[in-house]
Write a structure and sequence with these properties.
It is a single chain. The chain has helices spanning 2-32, 35-57, 62-84, 87-99, 108-129, 134-155, 161-180, 182-187, 191-198, 201-217. It is mostly helical and 224 residues long. The protein has a domain at 1-59. Helix 2 (35-57) packs parallel to helix 7 and helix 5 runs antiparallel to helix 6. The chain is flat, with a radius of gyration of 28 Å. The relative contact order is 0.11.
Length: 224
């Protein structure tokens, strides 16, 4: 009988896991046009839940988590609208038509987006690292240029609304735990406070008092 109950519980757990996995895949296909988005976004959602649980265990305030969630949702909405309405592609196309109309229409938009984004990224990387020395500044220039190149290539692509919405959800899921853990990353983890939190001091003291009480009323018999 006990074995059958164990089998039933195991089957129910398996069914719940199968339902959750299928739900992520179904929502990815239904909302964003691909089960791949369901796998990616579902995985990130579960990772976010785990990260929030860890942050709560490390005494990160619930208000911080809530405000971080609101900011992440705002970021996701903005990213989703920008890419869902194809604003970046339209913007680069209009800029290319205005400043580089004499170049080949098939390539000018892409080249302009990549070149301009890489240049801006290099300048920002230089400004961010120039106080740390020449080597760090050079690394900032290279890193900023590469990041700008990737960003330019991404923003120049014409995307359907479903992909834009998926990118918005992705941005929100990535932003939330980063913002929530910002204070913790700045101050670090207080190991002593965590150990003290999980050490049952009250239970230990109560046990000691109980032992002393028992000894006072039941003294040990002298050895013969």
């Amino acid at each position: 009988m006990v074995a059958l109950i164990g089998v039933a519980i195991g089957v129910v757990i398996l069914a719940a896991l199968l339902f959750a996995l299928g739900l992520f895949l179904f929502l990815g296909e239904w909302l964003f046009g691909s089960i791949g988005w369901g796998v990616l976004l579902g995985t990130l959602l579960l990772v976010d839940v785990a990260a929030v649980a860890v942050l709560l265990a490390l005494d990160v305030k619930g208000g911080r988590l809530g405000s971080s969630l609101l900011v992440a949702l705002a970021v996701g909405v903005v990213v989703g609208l920008v890419f869902g309405l194809d604003l970046t592609h339209r913007g680069w196309t209009a800029l290319g038509d205005y400043v580089a109309s004499y170049y080949d229409p098939a390539t000018r938009t892409v080249l302009l987006a990549i070149g301009a984004s890489a240049g801006v990224g290099a300048v920002l990387g230089l400004l961010a690292r120039m106080r740390e020395g020449l080597g760090s500044a050079s690394g900032g220039v290279v890193g900023g240029a590469v990041l700008g190149l990737v960003l330019g290539r991404l923003t120049v692509i014409s995307m359907p609304p479903t992909i834009g919405a998926a990118l918005g959800v992705l941005a929100a899921l990535v932003t939330w735990p980063i913002l929530a853990a910002r204070d913790l990353m700045q101050t670090g983890v207080d190991g002593e406070a965590i150990m003290k939190k999980f050490t049952p001091d009250e239970t230990i003291e109560l046990t000691k008092e109980t032992i002393e009480w028992v000894r006072a009323r039941m003294p040990l018999a002298p050895k013969s």
